[in-house]
Amino acid sequence: MADSPYPELKKSHVPERVGRPWTDYKPPPSAPVWAVISGFGSYHVLVAALELGVFDALAARGAAPGVPPVETAKGLAESLGVSAPHLEALLDSLAVLGLLERVGGRYSLNDPAARYLTTDGAASMASLVPVAPGPLDNWSRLADTIRAGRPAEAIDNDPADFYRPLVEGTFTTMLRAATRADFQVRYSAMTAPRVLDLGAGGAPWAVAVLKACPGATAVINDLDGVIEVAQRTTAEHGVADRCEFRPGDFHTIEIESEGYDMVVLGHVCRTEGPVGARQLIARAADALRPEGRLLLADYFVAPEPQWSPHSVLMGMTMMASTIHGFPITAAQVAEWLRDAGFETLRLIEPIGHQFVYTATKPLKPRAEGP
Ligand SMILES: C[S@@+](CC[C@H](N)C(=O)[O-])C[C@H]1O[C@@H](n2cnc3c(N)ncnc32)[C@H](O)[C@@H]1O
Protein backbone atom coordinates (compact mmCIF):
# COMPACT_ATOMS: atom_id res chain seq x y z
CA MET A 1 0.00 0.00 0.00
CA ALA A 2 1.45 3.43 -0.97
CA ASP A 3 2.27 5.62 1.97
CA SER A 4 2.15 9.39 2.37
CA PRO A 5 5.37 11.29 3.05
CA TYR A 6 3.39 13.83 5.10
CA PRO A 7 3.55 12.83 8.77
CA GLU A 8 0.13 14.23 9.60
CA LEU A 9 -1.54 12.15 6.87
CA LYS A 10 -0.54 8.67 8.00
CA LYS A 11 -4.16 7.82 8.60
CA SER A 12 -3.79 4.47 6.87
CA HIS A 13 -1.78 3.07 9.77
CA VAL A 14 -4.62 2.67 12.20
CA PRO A 15 -5.31 -0.66 13.91
CA GLU A 16 -8.60 -0.99 12.03
CA ARG A 17 -6.74 -1.12 8.71
CA VAL A 18 -3.49 -2.84 9.46
CA GLY A 19 -4.22 -5.03 12.45
CA ARG A 20 -4.39 -5.09 16.25
CA PRO A 21 -2.16 -2.48 18.02
CA TRP A 22 0.45 -5.12 18.97
CA THR A 23 0.76 -6.19 15.36
CA ASP A 24 0.58 -2.64 14.04
CA TYR A 25 3.42 -1.38 11.84
CA LYS A 26 4.37 2.29 12.19
CA PRO A 27 6.72 3.65 9.53
CA PRO A 28 9.39 6.06 10.77
CA PRO A 29 8.32 9.70 10.67
CA SER A 30 9.54 11.78 7.74
CA ALA A 31 9.98 14.75 10.08
CA PRO A 32 13.85 14.73 9.88
CA VAL A 33 13.62 14.98 6.08
CA TRP A 34 11.07 17.78 6.25
CA ALA A 35 13.21 19.61 8.82
CA VAL A 36 16.06 19.67 6.29
CA ILE A 37 13.86 20.68 3.36
CA SER A 38 12.31 23.54 5.29
CA GLY A 39 15.75 24.57 6.59
CA PHE A 40 16.45 26.17 3.23
CA GLY A 41 13.24 28.22 3.36
CA SER A 42 13.72 29.06 7.06
CA TYR A 43 17.15 30.51 6.36
CA HIS A 44 15.80 32.74 3.60
CA VAL A 45 12.86 33.86 5.73
CA LEU A 46 15.37 35.16 8.27
CA VAL A 47 17.65 36.73 5.65
CA ALA A 48 14.64 38.51 4.07
CA ALA A 49 13.42 39.76 7.46
CA LEU A 50 16.87 41.20 8.21
CA GLU A 51 17.13 42.76 4.75
CA LEU A 52 13.71 44.39 5.15
CA GLY A 53 14.59 45.68 8.63
CA VAL A 54 11.71 43.84 10.36
CA PHE A 55 13.46 43.40 13.72
CA ASP A 56 14.82 46.95 13.88
CA ALA A 57 11.39 48.34 12.89
CA LEU A 58 9.69 46.39 15.69
CA ALA A 59 12.35 47.59 18.16
CA ALA A 60 11.89 51.20 17.02
CA ARG A 61 8.13 50.92 17.60
CA GLY A 62 8.55 49.64 21.16
CA ALA A 63 7.40 46.10 20.29
CA ALA A 64 9.90 44.70 22.78
CA PRO A 65 10.06 41.45 24.75
CA GLY A 66 7.92 41.48 27.86
CA VAL A 67 5.30 43.97 26.61
CA PRO A 68 2.06 42.78 25.00
CA PRO A 69 2.45 42.64 21.18
CA VAL A 70 0.92 45.76 19.62
CA GLU A 71 2.19 45.86 16.05
CA THR A 72 0.02 44.47 13.24
CA ALA A 73 1.35 43.23 9.90
CA LYS A 74 -0.53 46.08 8.20
CA GLY A 75 0.99 48.77 10.42
CA LEU A 76 4.47 47.35 10.04
CA ALA A 77 4.04 46.96 6.26
CA GLU A 78 3.12 50.64 6.00
CA SER A 79 6.21 51.74 7.89
CA LEU A 80 8.47 49.43 5.83
CA GLY A 81 6.76 50.25 2.51
CA VAL A 82 6.10 46.59 1.60
CA SER A 83 3.11 44.41 0.70
CA ALA A 84 1.05 43.72 3.85
CA PRO A 85 -0.16 40.17 3.01
CA HIS A 86 3.33 39.11 2.00
CA LEU A 87 4.82 40.62 5.13
CA GLU A 88 2.19 38.86 7.26
CA ALA A 89 3.26 35.49 5.80
CA LEU A 90 6.87 36.34 6.60
CA LEU A 91 6.01 37.45 10.16
CA ASP A 92 4.01 34.27 10.78
CA SER A 93 6.93 32.19 9.53
CA LEU A 94 9.25 34.03 11.93
CA ALA A 95 6.80 33.33 14.76
CA VAL A 96 6.72 29.63 13.81
CA LEU A 97 10.53 29.60 13.83
CA GLY A 98 10.58 31.05 17.36
CA LEU A 99 12.07 34.35 16.19
CA LEU A 100 9.09 36.63 16.95
CA GLU A 101 6.21 36.77 19.42
CA ARG A 102 2.71 36.66 17.89
CA VAL A 103 -0.46 37.11 19.93
CA GLY A 104 -3.87 37.73 18.33
CA GLY A 105 -2.41 38.89 15.00
CA ARG A 106 -0.01 41.34 16.67
CA TYR A 107 3.75 40.97 16.77
CA SER A 108 6.68 41.89 18.97
CA LEU A 109 10.30 40.92 19.43
CA ASN A 110 10.96 37.96 21.68
CA ASP A 111 14.17 37.59 23.71
CA PRO A 112 16.29 35.87 21.00
CA ALA A 113 15.19 38.43 18.39
CA ALA A 114 16.02 41.39 20.64
CA ARG A 115 19.41 39.99 21.58
CA TYR A 116 20.61 38.48 18.30
CA LEU A 117 18.61 39.92 15.41
CA THR A 118 18.34 43.66 15.98
CA THR A 119 21.27 45.72 14.71
CA ASP A 120 21.93 47.10 18.20
CA GLY A 121 21.20 43.83 20.03
CA ALA A 122 23.56 42.96 22.88
CA ALA A 123 25.00 40.05 20.86
CA SER A 124 23.81 41.06 17.39
CA MET A 125 24.18 38.46 14.63
CA ALA A 126 22.25 40.63 12.16
CA SER A 127 25.19 41.12 9.81
CA LEU A 128 26.48 37.57 10.31
CA VAL A 129 23.34 35.71 9.18
CA PRO A 130 23.57 36.62 5.46
CA VAL A 131 27.29 35.74 5.15
CA ALA A 132 27.70 32.84 7.62
CA PRO A 133 27.05 29.96 5.16
CA GLY A 134 29.59 31.33 2.65
CA PRO A 135 28.71 31.66 -1.05
CA LEU A 136 25.29 30.04 -1.47
CA ASP A 137 26.20 28.78 -4.96
CA ASN A 138 28.78 26.48 -3.39
CA TRP A 139 26.04 24.74 -1.39
CA SER A 140 24.00 24.02 -4.50
CA ARG A 141 27.11 22.48 -6.05
CA LEU A 142 28.10 20.41 -3.02
CA ALA A 143 27.77 17.07 -4.81
CA ASP A 144 30.21 18.35 -7.47
CA THR A 145 32.63 19.43 -4.73
CA ILE A 146 32.51 15.95 -3.22
CA ARG A 147 33.02 14.33 -6.64
CA ALA A 148 35.94 16.59 -7.55
CA GLY A 149 37.49 16.88 -4.08
CA ARG A 150 37.46 20.69 -4.21
CA PRO A 151 34.90 23.46 -4.62
CA ALA A 152 34.43 24.99 -8.05
CA GLU A 153 34.56 28.53 -6.65
CA ALA A 154 36.90 28.36 -3.65
CA ILE A 155 36.93 31.51 -1.55
CA ASP A 156 40.72 31.06 -1.47
CA ASN A 157 40.72 32.81 -4.87
CA ASP A 158 39.48 36.03 -3.28
CA PRO A 159 39.79 35.60 0.50
CA ALA A 160 39.50 39.27 1.47
CA ASP A 161 36.14 39.64 -0.22
CA PHE A 162 34.78 36.65 1.69
CA TYR A 163 36.40 37.24 5.09
CA ARG A 164 35.81 41.00 5.47
CA PRO A 165 32.02 40.78 5.95
CA LEU A 166 32.40 37.48 7.84
CA VAL A 167 34.74 38.86 10.50
CA GLU A 168 32.64 42.00 10.80
CA GLY A 169 29.66 39.72 11.45
CA THR A 170 31.39 37.42 13.97
CA PHE A 171 33.19 40.15 15.93
CA THR A 172 30.55 40.65 18.66
CA THR A 173 30.21 36.93 19.39
CA MET A 174 33.96 36.33 19.36
CA LEU A 175 34.65 39.37 21.56
CA ARG A 176 32.16 38.03 24.07
CA ALA A 177 33.82 34.57 23.97
CA ALA A 178 37.27 36.16 24.35
CA THR A 179 36.11 38.37 27.22
CA ARG A 180 34.37 35.51 29.07
CA ALA A 181 37.44 33.28 28.52
CA ASP A 182 39.25 35.42 31.09
CA PHE A 183 37.28 33.65 33.86
CA GLN A 184 39.23 30.49 32.98
CA VAL A 185 42.40 31.81 31.34
CA ARG A 186 42.97 34.78 33.74
CA TYR A 187 44.91 36.84 31.22
CA SER A 188 43.76 39.92 33.16
CA ALA A 189 46.15 38.87 35.94
CA MET A 190 49.15 39.44 33.64
CA THR A 191 50.89 42.79 33.96
CA ALA A 192 52.02 43.62 30.44
CA PRO A 193 51.47 40.62 28.15
CA ARG A 194 52.58 40.81 24.54
CA VAL A 195 49.98 39.19 22.28
CA LEU A 196 50.24 37.86 18.74
CA ASP A 197 46.87 37.45 16.99
CA LEU A 198 47.30 35.55 13.67
CA GLY A 199 44.44 35.72 11.16
CA ALA A 200 42.88 38.11 13.67
CA GLY A 201 39.86 39.26 11.63
CA GLY A 202 38.39 42.10 13.73
CA ALA A 203 40.92 41.07 16.44
CA PRO A 204 38.35 40.18 19.12
CA TRP A 205 40.98 38.32 21.18
CA ALA A 206 43.56 41.10 21.07
CA VAL A 207 40.86 43.66 21.93
CA ALA A 208 39.68 41.60 24.94
CA VAL A 209 43.21 41.19 26.33
CA LEU A 210 44.24 44.81 25.69
CA LYS A 211 41.10 46.08 27.42
CA ALA A 212 41.68 43.83 30.42
CA CYS A 213 45.42 44.63 30.76
CA PRO A 214 46.32 48.33 30.46
CA GLY A 215 50.00 47.40 29.97
CA ALA A 216 49.39 44.84 27.19
CA THR A 217 50.54 45.29 23.60
CA ALA A 218 49.59 43.30 20.49
CA VAL A 219 50.79 42.40 17.04
CA ILE A 220 47.75 41.88 14.83
CA ASN A 221 47.97 39.98 11.56
CA ASP A 222 45.52 39.45 8.74
CA LEU A 223 45.43 39.70 4.99
CA ASP A 224 45.51 43.02 3.18
CA GLY A 225 41.90 44.01 2.69
CA VAL A 226 40.82 42.40 5.99
CA ILE A 227 43.27 43.94 8.46
CA GLU A 228 41.42 47.24 8.03
CA VAL A 229 38.58 45.69 10.05
CA ALA A 230 40.96 45.22 13.01
CA GLN A 231 42.29 48.73 12.59
CA ARG A 232 38.73 50.01 12.95
CA THR A 233 37.63 47.77 15.85
CA THR A 234 40.78 48.42 17.90
CA ALA A 235 40.25 52.18 17.39
CA GLU A 236 36.59 51.88 18.39
CA HIS A 237 37.63 50.07 21.58
CA GLY A 238 40.36 52.60 22.35
CA VAL A 239 43.30 50.18 22.14
CA ALA A 240 44.71 50.87 18.65
CA ASP A 241 47.68 52.82 20.07
CA ARG A 242 48.96 49.59 21.67
CA CYS A 243 48.67 47.56 18.43
CA GLU A 244 51.11 46.95 15.63
CA PHE A 245 49.37 45.83 12.44
CA ARG A 246 51.30 43.29 10.41
CA PRO A 247 49.45 42.51 7.16
CA GLY A 248 50.25 39.44 5.07
CA ASP A 249 50.08 35.67 4.91
CA PHE A 250 50.42 34.18 8.40
CA HIS A 251 52.55 31.37 6.96
CA THR A 252 55.23 33.74 5.73
CA ILE A 253 55.15 37.04 7.67
CA GLU A 254 58.10 37.68 9.95
CA ILE A 255 57.47 36.64 13.56
CA GLU A 256 59.96 37.19 16.40
CA SER A 257 61.14 34.00 18.13
CA GLU A 258 60.14 33.82 21.82
CA GLY A 259 58.74 37.36 21.60
CA TYR A 260 55.21 36.77 22.92
CA ASP A 261 53.36 35.76 26.10
CA MET A 262 50.22 34.76 24.25
CA VAL A 263 49.51 33.67 20.68
CA VAL A 264 45.97 33.43 19.33
CA LEU A 265 44.84 31.20 16.47
CA GLY A 266 41.13 32.05 16.37
CA HIS A 267 39.11 30.01 13.85
CA VAL A 268 41.93 29.72 11.35
CA CYS A 269 42.93 26.04 11.67
CA ARG A 270 39.65 24.65 10.31
CA THR A 271 40.37 26.14 6.87
CA GLU A 272 44.01 25.09 6.73
CA GLY A 273 43.93 21.30 6.63
CA PRO A 274 46.36 19.26 8.78
CA VAL A 275 49.53 20.48 7.04
CA GLY A 276 48.71 24.18 7.27
CA ALA A 277 47.33 23.89 10.81
CA ARG A 278 50.45 22.09 12.06
CA GLN A 279 52.61 24.80 10.44
CA LEU A 280 50.65 27.54 12.20
CA ILE A 281 50.87 25.75 15.55
CA ALA A 282 54.64 25.33 15.07
CA ARG A 283 54.94 29.06 14.29
CA ALA A 284 52.97 29.84 17.45
CA ALA A 285 55.25 27.56 19.50
CA ASP A 286 58.31 29.32 18.17
CA ALA A 287 56.82 32.78 18.79
CA LEU A 288 56.01 32.06 22.46
CA ARG A 289 58.30 32.62 25.40
CA PRO A 290 58.72 29.57 27.65
CA GLU A 291 55.53 29.34 29.79
CA GLY A 292 53.68 31.42 27.20
CA ARG A 293 50.24 30.24 26.14
CA LEU A 294 48.56 29.44 22.87
CA LEU A 295 44.81 30.01 22.60
CA LEU A 296 43.38 28.00 19.71
CA ALA A 297 39.68 28.62 19.14
CA ASP A 298 37.68 26.54 16.69
CA TYR A 299 34.69 24.23 16.27
CA PHE A 300 36.08 20.87 17.38
CA VAL A 301 34.31 17.66 16.43
CA ALA A 302 33.68 15.27 19.34
CA PRO A 303 34.83 11.60 19.29
CA GLU A 304 31.35 10.73 18.02
CA PRO A 305 30.46 13.45 15.46
CA GLN A 306 26.77 13.23 16.45
CA TRP A 307 27.71 14.76 19.84
CA SER A 308 28.88 17.99 18.18
CA PRO A 309 26.47 18.79 15.32
CA HIS A 310 27.40 22.49 15.25
CA SER A 311 31.11 21.68 14.80
CA VAL A 312 30.42 19.11 12.09
CA LEU A 313 28.28 21.57 10.13
CA MET A 314 30.70 24.48 10.60
CA GLY A 315 33.43 22.21 9.24
CA MET A 316 31.18 21.37 6.28
CA THR A 317 30.73 25.11 5.64
CA MET A 318 34.49 25.38 5.21
CA MET A 319 34.66 22.22 3.09
CA ALA A 320 31.97 23.63 0.80
CA SER A 321 33.91 26.79 0.04
CA THR A 322 37.64 26.33 0.68
CA ILE A 323 40.32 24.07 -0.79
CA HIS A 324 41.74 22.69 2.47
CA GLY A 325 38.84 23.27 4.88
CA PHE A 326 37.42 20.28 6.79
CA PRO A 327 35.80 19.54 10.13
CA ILE A 328 38.64 19.11 12.67
CA THR A 329 38.36 16.89 15.72
CA ALA A 330 39.32 17.75 19.28
CA ALA A 331 41.63 14.71 19.34
CA GLN A 332 43.39 15.75 16.13
CA VAL A 333 44.09 19.26 17.48
CA ALA A 334 45.33 17.87 20.81
CA GLU A 335 47.77 15.68 18.85
CA TRP A 336 49.01 18.66 16.78
CA LEU A 337 49.53 20.68 19.98
CA ARG A 338 51.44 17.90 21.77
CA ASP A 339 53.56 17.19 18.68
CA ALA A 340 54.55 20.89 18.63
CA GLY A 341 55.76 20.51 22.25
CA PHE A 342 52.82 22.12 24.07
CA GLU A 343 51.78 20.91 27.52
CA THR A 344 48.92 21.48 29.98
CA LEU A 345 46.21 21.32 27.36
CA ARG A 346 42.76 22.49 28.44
CA LEU A 347 39.57 22.67 26.40
CA ILE A 348 37.27 25.45 27.60
CA GLU A 349 33.85 26.70 26.44
CA PRO A 350 33.73 30.39 27.42
CA ILE A 351 30.25 30.81 25.89
CA GLY A 352 27.89 28.24 24.38
CA HIS A 353 29.28 26.52 21.26
CA GLN A 354 32.57 28.47 21.35
CA PHE A 355 35.46 26.20 22.29
CA VAL A 356 39.09 27.12 22.91
CA TYR A 357 42.15 24.98 23.55
CA THR A 358 44.68 26.59 25.85
CA ALA A 359 48.17 25.08 25.78
CA THR A 360 51.42 26.10 27.47
CA LYS A 361 54.93 26.11 26.04
CA PRO A 362 57.10 24.31 28.62
CA LEU A 363 60.10 25.94 30.28
CA LYS A 364 62.35 23.29 28.75
CA PRO A 365 61.57 21.27 25.62
CA ARG A 366 60.28 17.79 26.45
CA ALA A 367 63.08 15.21 26.65
CA GLU A 368 63.01 12.75 23.76
CA GLY A 369 62.16 9.17 24.72
CA PRO A 370 64.89 6.48 24.86
C1 LIG B 1 37.12 32.75 10.49
S1 LIG B 1 38.10 34.20 10.50
C2 LIG B 1 38.55 34.32 12.20
C3 LIG B 1 38.84 35.73 12.66
C4 LIG B 1 39.25 35.87 14.13
N1 LIG B 1 40.52 35.23 14.40
C5 LIG B 1 38.20 35.34 15.06
O1 LIG B 1 38.47 34.40 15.81
O2 LIG B 1 37.11 35.90 15.07
C6 LIG B 1 39.61 33.67 9.72
C7 LIG B 1 40.57 34.84 9.49
O3 LIG B 1 41.82 34.33 9.01
C8 LIG B 1 42.28 35.21 7.99
N2 LIG B 1 43.19 34.46 7.11
C9 LIG B 1 42.89 33.43 6.28
N3 LIG B 1 43.97 33.01 5.63
C10 LIG B 1 45.00 33.82 6.04
C11 LIG B 1 46.38 33.88 5.73
N4 LIG B 1 46.92 33.03 4.85
N5 LIG B 1 47.11 34.81 6.34
C12 LIG B 1 46.58 35.68 7.22
N6 LIG B 1 45.27 35.68 7.56
C13 LIG B 1 44.49 34.75 6.98
C14 LIG B 1 41.02 35.65 7.29
O4 LIG B 1 41.21 36.82 6.52
C15 LIG B 1 40.08 35.83 8.47
O5 LIG B 1 40.14 37.13 8.99
List the helices and strands and how they pair.
Elements: H1 15-18, H2 31-52, H3 54-60, E1 71-72, H4 73-80, H5 84-96, E2 101-103, E3 106-108, H6 111-117, H7 136-140, H8 142-148, H9 159-180, H10 182-185, E4 194-198, H11 204-212, E5 217-220, H12 227-236, E6 243-245, E7 260-266, H13 273-287, E8 288-298, E9 300-301, H14 309-321, E10 328-329, H15 330-339, E11 343-351, E12 354-360
Parallel strand pairs: 4-5, 4-7, 5-6, 7-8, 9-10
Antiparallel strand pairs: 1-3, 2-3, 8-12, 11-12
Helix pairs in contact: 2-5, 4-5, 9-11
S-adenosylmethionine binds next to helix 9.
Provide a compact summary of the structure.
The protein is an alpha/beta fold and 370 residues long. It has helices at residues 15-18, 31-52, 54-60, 73-80, 84-96, 111-117, 136-140, 142-148, 159-180, 182-185, 204-212, 227-236, 273-287, 309-321, 330-339, and strands at 71-72, 101-103, 106-108, 194-198, 217-220, 243-245, 260-266, 288-298, 300-301, 328-329, 343-351, 354-360.
